[in-house]
Amino acid sequence: MNAKPKRRTVKENGDTGEDLVLATLIGNGEDLGPMVKHAFEMGRPEALLHQLKFVVKKKEVEIEELCKLHYEEFILAVDELRGVLVDAEELKSELASDNFRLQEVGSSLLLKLDELLQSYSIKKNVTEAIKRSRNCVQVLDLCVKCNNHISELRFYPALKTIDLIEKNYLQNIPVKTLRMLIEERIPIIKSHIEKKVTSQVNEWLVLIRSTAKDIGQTAIKYAALARQRDEETLACQRKAEEQSCSGLEDFPYTLDVEEIDEDSVLKFDLTPLHRAYHIHTCLGIPEKFRDYYYKNRLLQLSSDLQISSTQPFLESHQTFLAQIAGYFIVEDRVLRTAGGLLLASQVETMWETAVAKVTSVLEEQFSHMDTASHILLVKDYVTLLGATLRQYGYEVGSILEILNHSREKYHELLLTECRQQITDILAN
Length: 428
Fold this sequence. Notes:
428 residues; mainly alpha; 14 helices
């Protein structure tokens, strides 16, 4: 193994300058194309082929010498490579064993992981189901409250509950069937509330019309008492002035005047009307209720302005005028307290209608009267009517003017009665 092989020698035949140039070009990795082309152009390709073979043989000798020089290192490298292969096989065996054990442990862990993921999925679904169930329960509780409010005729809380459902819960109801059912029922419930409230208003309209006469009579009675107090005050003043002029001592006088709040005396309940207007406002249809109220009150006024055909006007005039007074006292209270339900222009229109009808009725009835006392009786009550309604801001000049127009007839009837009395006295 330690004996070195003999170096082979190559006969240097043809080792010319051209061979050296060719060997140098090949060693430098340069392009041999120009040289090959030149050889064929010169007609000497055999010489080039001979040179190439010589270069090849020379390289083979160099390779053989290089292998002989590094023979021992090559053998050692091969031995080391075989050792590496053995180590690699052992490492591969260990890796296979470790992988098997890892697969055994990992399989059980994967099963546990699958169970854990399934548990998480179940937990998520259960949590979502509980959340949705709570939403449904909350909505159903509100629906029950709404139904209870409606059954107890507490419509405003019912509407507030419906509004709460629409704003905060309706779009978040997870069950589509329940959501669609509630969406369908809400307009029906609102319509039901509107009808019930309107029915209550109709009952109130009937009630207020039946009590308008009492309201008017009470107000006119207080106007009569006020006139009586004024007359007593004037009488006391005149008496005091007469005593003062006759040189007597000053006559002190006092008159107890009780201030009366007519709003507290004339008690009538507007609560159903206010509640109905508020409910219609919550429903978003206040204009509809305003029109409804105004039209119905106009119809009632038209009916109130019809005088009785079965009873003489002398007997029915107080009821007729008291009914009108009560009507407009109620409308004044509605105008002041109902928050826009009635407009001042609407009240003015109703009042103008009433004035036109009352003046027409009075003119006709005065023209048919043939007794001065009857005219005086009606005029007195009309005067009290004017004094009563003037306190509420109504213009009563047109009505009182009719009394001035009847003055001439009153004087004629009074003169006729005096003549008749004188004639009767002379005849007896």
